[in-house]
Specification:
mainly alpha; Arc Repressor Mutant, subunit A; 72% helix; 0% strand; 159 residues; single chain
């Protein structure tokens, strides 16, 4: 890697990872533990990276939210995935609010667009309609957003 002795330091490994994409602190801790670094060394390394603004949970969370919105995922799934990646509730809420404001996110329209990309009709049977509902629910949309998307699909199909 970078060091001449063949052994990498926690900082070198963390920098290599962060060069590819943003990581949450918790993700970096797991990755560095997998490389058998000592917990004290990991903590010290990540504290310095955070002080130098090379690692930021809020920056990671905002980047993550934007990427998931681009994939057509709803707020419920995004929140769940951020929690799995060690992002606290306050950072999560701030990241969602910042991205929603900057990108002018409309979750109802995102649900409609996501459904329309996958399905062209509402479906002939209740079973087919339920499949569409489950699709949106698995993507992290709430009941009102799912109902809105289905209504829009129904309206566009009946015209």
């Amino acid at each position: 890697m970078f060091s001449s002795g063949g052994e990498s330091t926690p900082r070198e490994v963390a920098i290599q990872l962060l060069a590819r994409r943003e990581y949450s602190r918790a993700e970096l801790v797991r990755k560095l533990q997998q490389k058998s670094f000592e917990n004290d060394d990991i903590t010290a390394c990540l504290d310095v990276l955070a002080e130098q603004a090379l690692q930021s949970d809020s920056r990671f969370a905002e980047s993550f939210v934007r990427s998931r919105i681009a994939r057509g995922q709803g707020v419920i799934r995004i929140k769940g995935e951020l929690r799995q990646r060690g992002i606290d509730q306050e950072t999560l809420a701030a990241a969602l609010a910042a991205v929603e404001e900057r990108e002018d996110v409309d979750w109802f329209e995102l649900a409609r667009e996501t459904l329309a990309r996958r399905y062209t009709s509402l479906g002939e049977s209740p079973k087919e309609r339920a499949k569409r509902e489950r699709f949106l629910a698995s993507r992290g949309f709430n009941f009102e957003q799912i109902r809105y998307a289905l209504t829009c699909l129904s309206d566009s199909f009946s015209q």
